[in-house]
């Protein structure tokens, strides 16, 4: 029998690949680039000019763990609201600009942490790069070049015939080169497409040809279920290669759901500290309990638990004891009862109707005692240093 060495528990959890080396930049208080954790973004769905509603939604996103938030700015009223929103938000605010170049300057002047520009639909954008670079440099404001398949520069559509990976990458690299001509390099790039295969290839091309941080996203990914699958597949394919520095899961769903999915993707890849994780069997003919209901009830009862805890809810005598024993907390169910495991030891046996309440009680006890490891803190932020939607689902 071949001996496989066990992982050292003192070492950080393994990841699939080292991060691609990038330039580093600061988006407000959040570091972006290969030296910082991959950050989770979302976008407000409120009318930005409604300051109170927008700040309320930002507060909800902040509570859900959002690192950076983007707000739409399609009108002058929205631009006028940016300064107050940027000042009062607890997380960095990015202004999302389309069509009108004047709003780029308004967002920079308002003190937004960064500005997203879409070169494909801002009038005569290339002619404005010198002025934008100067204004952004003066205020220390990074720029995200956000290329989108649905609004690609007409010149590139004519050249490539459609929004191919090559067209998306070419658009982004061309705009980045214009900023570089004016010695402005505080750039982050995104090249979004609704097809994960096209999107992944576009980012691979970018990663080969530049060292700017990359913001990942499958644009118009769809309703919650479909969008989650598309985003998880695409992000996994890229993060597996170390590609990606910020992410946004674009869903036709409340933005808080985007943040939850984003965190879960990163936790699954050990790119964020794992928090609550439910391990449950898919059920089969061997199961002697209603595993579906047990897992749903335990998940609901532990919602919001912040300690890193793996809970196994098992209903099969084949794999149940092993999975329950290997988790921090678990149950192996059968014959109308459940054996409760804590750190591999059976601590009690309870009737089936008490399994859920017992697991929740034990989880809360572990949480109160702090578990074996401290609960993960807020997303990593550092102080800046001298070196350092309405119609838009991009």
Automatic annotation (TrEMBL):
Which keywords does UniProt give here?
A: 4Fe-4S, Iron, Iron-sulfur, Isoprene biosynthesis, Metal-binding, Oxidoreductase
Full protein name? 4-hydroxy-3-methylbut-2-en-1-yl diphosphate synthase (flavodoxin)
Pfam families linked to this entry = GcpE (PF04551), GcpE_C (PF26540)
Q: Residues in domain IspG C-terminal? A: 277-363
Kindly state which reaction or reactions the protein catalyses.
Answer: (2E)-4-hydroxy-3-methylbut-2-enyl diphosphate + oxidized [flavodoxin] + H2O + 2 H(+) = 2-C-methyl-D-erythritol 2,4-cyclic diphosphate + reduced [flavodoxin]
Task: Give start-end positions of Polar residues composition bias.
Answer: 383-394
Q: Name one GO biological process term.
A: isopentenyl diphosphate biosynthetic process, methylerythritol 4-phosphate pathway
């Amino acid at each position: 029998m071949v001996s496989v060495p066990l992982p050292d528990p003192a070492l950080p959890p393994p990841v699939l690949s080292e991060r691609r080396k990038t330039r580093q930049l600061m988006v407000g208080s959040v570091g972006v680039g290969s030296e910082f954790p991959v950050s989770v973004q979302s976008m407000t769905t409120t009318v930005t000019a409604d300051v109170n509603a927008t700040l309320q939604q930002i507060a909800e996103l902040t509570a859900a763990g959002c690192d950076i938030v983007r707000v739409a700015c399609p009108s002058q009223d929205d631009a006028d609201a940016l300064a107050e929103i940027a000042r009062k938000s607890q997380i960095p605010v990015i202004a999302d600009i389309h069509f009108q170049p004047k709003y780029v300057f308004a967002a920079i002047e308002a003190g937004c942490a960064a500005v997203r520009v879409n070169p494909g639909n801002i009038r005569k954008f290339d002619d404005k790069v010198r002025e934008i670079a100067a204004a952004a440099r003066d205020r220390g404001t990074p720029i995200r070049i956000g290329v989108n398949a649905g609004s690609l520069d007409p010149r590139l559509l004519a050249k490539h015939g459609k929004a191919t990976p090559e067209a998306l990458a070419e658009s982004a690299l061309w705009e980045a080169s214009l900023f570089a001509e004016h010695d402005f390099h505080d750039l982050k790039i995104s090249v979004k497409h609704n097809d994960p295969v096209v999107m992944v290839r576009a980012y691979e091309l970018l990663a080969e040809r530049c060292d700017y941080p990359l913001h990942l996203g499958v644009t118009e990914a769809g309703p919650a279920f479909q969008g989650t699958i598309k985003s998880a597949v695409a992000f996994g394919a890229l993060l597996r290669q170390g590609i990606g520095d910020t992410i946004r899961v674009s869903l036709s769903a409340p933005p808080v759901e985007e943040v939850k999915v984003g965190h879960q993707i990163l936790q699954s890849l050990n790119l964020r500290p794992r928090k609550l994780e439910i391990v449950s069997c898919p059920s089969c003919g061997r199961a002697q309990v209603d595993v579906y209901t047990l897992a749903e009830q335990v998940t609901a009862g532990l919602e919001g638990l912040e300690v890193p805890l793996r809970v196994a809810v098992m209903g099969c005598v084949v794999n149940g004891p092993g999975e329950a024993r290997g988790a921090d907390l678990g149950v192996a169910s059968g014959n109308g009862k459940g054996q409760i495991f804590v750190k591999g030891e059976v601590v009690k046996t309870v009737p089936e109707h008490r399994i859920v309440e017992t697991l929740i009680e034990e989880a809360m006890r572990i949480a109160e005692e702090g578990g074996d490891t401290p609960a993960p803190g807020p997303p990593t932020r550092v102080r800046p240093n001298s070196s350092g939607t309405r119609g838009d689902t991009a």
